[in-house]
Records
---
Amino acid sequence: MRAGQICAFPTETVYGLGADATNADAVLRVYEAKGRPRFNPLIVHCTDLAMARKLVVFSPLAEKLAAEFWPGPMTLVLPLRAESGIADIVTAGLSTLAVRIPAHPMARELIADAGTPLAAPSANPSGRLSPTRAAEVISGFEGKIPVLDGGPCHAGLESTILTVAEDKVVQLRAGALAREDVAAALGTDVAMAGKGSVIAAPGMLLSHYAPKAGIRLNAEVPRAGEAYLAFGATPETDGPMRNLSPTGDLREAARNLFTCLHELDALGLKEIAVAPIPDQGLGEAINDRLSRAAAPRDPEVVA
Ligand code: TXA
Ligand code: MG
């Protein structure tokens, strides 16, 4: 990492593809490896608050969120400091920076040893399913990217992205930290971007997290020729099936989501039918990923 190379590493959410965030050439290698559009900025990973404070300005409300949820699956979009040293390509020219302090010990050790904040998007080719196991990173990049293997990711969904506007918290991306939990900790509502809000994360493309197969949502039962992704009770079927959580536990479902999709997709069927998932708690983020996986694909982004 110190020499400007890139490497995939585990976090508690998904595997990230990391580069020294102060080295533009290194960060460019990440965009190139992923085939990621340059207008889509990256999250910068820090070991601790002292490192994060050198990069962005924390308002009192941002301080409160950091104290409550870091280290953990929360990303904060905050005003970038002029003297941060972060390469421009990381923010795609924005005046804000997305920062996160991951909880995974291997991620923390890597950042500390590198001695620099690491810019890291999820370690998948752009538009594809996110990886929650080292083997998924290896197959996604056909073995061309080195991977630190930390076992399966605990949360299995990307971090929740929040921004702080004056005295309000806005959720830019649903993720592994449920919006209800943020609201409960703050004692206020957390608005969702896009629903009556002008703030948005530039990378929230409609088609994303896409398997090769098509996705049919809210399917109570599979049709002939479809693979099935169940949640809770398992319907009768002769076809291939995975169950996100036989007991209907949303946390377990989040952890299994991408791996189940990777496994069903590897069978090469045309369509994966997915059971209805309740929209509360982590269900909000699961349904966000599924609806993007089901969206018509932009050939430029998904190729
Ligand atoms: O859990 C995660 O967040 C994983 C792990 C590796 O940390 N990372 C991840 O990165 O999901 P990525 O690149 O797949 O998603 C980053 C998201 C994109 O939607 C991007 O547009 C948004 O963060 N983002 C980054 N900087 C931003 C900024 N300054 N303002 C608004 N959105 C930003
Ligand atoms: Mg991603």
---
Amino acid sequence: MASLKHRIAFAAAGVVTAAQAATIGLVLYVAEGDAEARAMERLAIGSRVVADYMETHKAQLELTVNVLASDFAFRSAVASFDLPTVTSALRNHANRIAANQAILVGVDGFTIASAPRHVELSREVWKDVVDSRTTLATLGDTASLHQVVVTPVRAPDVIGWVVMGFRIDDALAVQLRNLTGMEVSFVSRRADETYASSLMPSANGLHDRSTSFFTRVDQLTNDGVMPQLLLQLSRDDALAGYYALSRSMMVLGALAVCFAVAIAAFSSNRITRHLKSLADAARRISAGDYGSPVAIRSNDEVETLADALSTMQAGIAERERQIRRQATHDALTGLPNHEQAVTILDARMRDGGAPFAAIVLHIHGLHEINSSLGLEVGDAVIGSVARRLAHEVRAENHIARIADNRFLVVSEERDPGAIEALGARLRDEFEVLSVGGDIQVGLSLQIGVAEFPAHARDAATLVRKAWGASLEASTTKGGMAFFNVDRDAQHKRRLTIMRDIKAAVLDDQLSLVYQPKYDVRTDRIGGVEALLRWHHPTLGAVPVTEFIEVAEQTRNIGRLTRWVLRRALAQASGWRQRGMQLTVAVNVSAHDLTDVDFPQYVRTVLAEHGLSGQTLELEVTEGALVYDLPRVRRTLEALHALGVRIFIDDFGTGFSSLAQLRDLSVHALKIDRSFVMRLDEGNTHIVRSTIDLGHALDLEVVAEGVEDEIAVNKLISWGCDHLQGYYFAKPLAPDELEAYLARSMATVSHLPVRRS
Ligand code: C2E
Ligand code: MG
Ligand code: MG
């Protein structure tokens, strides 16, 4: 990629070069044309000069030749045909007037005498000569041109003609060159013969008419050999001025280009240097460095741009400051938010700071204020709370708003009593809080405290623990709770169970154990109760009551019940196929009884395994009956219609009324194991009356938690219909149960007591 600097320099050089080339080209073109025109003019002038010279020369010659022709002695010699005298006179005269040839021609046109050489004029030449009276002609030798002057010799009639020829030779040509300043040549019409020339014989200018010379050709005569006059100006000489001009223009042009390139390079250098500074500044800004100013002094647009960049930098810095503040501070109170509070506390903890307590204040009543008095009042209350806290705490960075209705206060107070006192003060203050004007509201506080370094070494954990304690505070006197390690572990365990309960169903971490139920009337194990077990990957065996409670709260119980139902009925069907007729009891929760689809589900699963409703017993706690009674009743009726029997589990611990029990489609009561396990006087009373009551309502009675022989005997004697407990067997895995059953079938009675 060509840099901007180079591109500007190239462009400037290109433009200037092109402009210079165009100007120089045009000027030189015009100058050359002008020089040529002037050369041609000079040639024309030269031509006239030569013509004048020839004319003058001819006039002089005529004068001298006339003198000879009128010389008496000469005329007499011609008349007397005295040839030696004539020849001698011709020679003398020729010598005297520097003619190269003299010829006497008779009136008949024949040559009579000639000198110094003997020349015989042909008739054509003679005719040409005599017709034009004086002209240029080759005399004797075709290679030599002469200026010819003809004069009659009269005595008194014309008795002959004297022809004088003056050779046109190189000397004349040189003389003419000196006169005209140009090369002069006399050539034959077709230029096959050069009669005379000022050019050196070696110079080939004659043949090279166009390239080295400007040439003008004049026809000298129209008769005879028709010689031509060639005037030539050396192109180099003629154009010398033009060449000098073009050289200087070239130099000037080159200088202009160099100058332009230098200027362009200089200014592009300057611009690119500025641009680079601007780009550096932009990069700095993008990297978040707003401190260095964008200072470029150049008095042009670059400076304007730099100023704009500076303004932008300041704008971005300000906005970023605002955004950062918004991200770290609560807009309403201007207090640090949760994240910022954690950052501040972390820094404090890292520095090995002094111990402190994180106090989370959970403010109750805000939602009610928002919904009844409006958000504006709610906001005013929060503002007022923040001010009160600030007034109370009086230290910077010691208060934060970490959630809608939660504030964090940091106290350096070491004494728990002092922290409690602070909490009490705040609770009192917020009990009646006036919010501008005459609005007064009442807020209640739940306060949780966690301490650094005792409870956590990082701020997020510390705040979380204080927050957790604030949740516990509802149950404490004074609405304040300090973080408790045990409670925290319990919370974590509960969270793990919540998180993993779905996976337990899907990943097959669940299993069922079965506890036999002894039927007093038939003296055999008539059925089993299916009890759920969960082996968690990290927690190990989780007590069933613990995760059932979580499942109920997290609305996962339906999922679990269905899993148990499916597994238990599959098991029952398996046993049935192997000749073991056992009823299976499955525990269900209140939620299942309000689930309108539940009976249909039970029906489907029974049908899938080809089992009748009598195979299944559902155990429902008393508590489950109090929710949405009409709906529960419908469910129970639907189940009853399937032949499924309903047992009231843990009977005696709840508050179900007799009237309710009579109304509902219930089959049996299962006396809670707490009564059965300890049959003291009071419990005996309860158990016996429960048995009687059940029978009175036409219900069967089951005793669970039967642990010893004494209890067995008592319960049988009181008329209890079914017994269940460790005395018979603990809940057993399916294969254990089968082994157990096989063992007990072999005995006469299923009652271990009778076996002994
Ligand atoms: P539950 O329905 O009353 O079950 C009887 C509980 O008493 C069982 O405890 C059983 O192991 C225990 N038990 C039986 N005989 C004796 C005895 O002689 N002495 C003593 N000390 N205990 C005895 P488990 O298995 O821990 O179950 C506790 C409770 O968890 C069950 O009480 C039931 O309410 C619930 N539960 C168990 N499985 C399920 C289930 O699949 N679904 C639902 N919704 N609840 C279940
Ligand atoms: Mg039960
Ligand atoms: Mg029970």
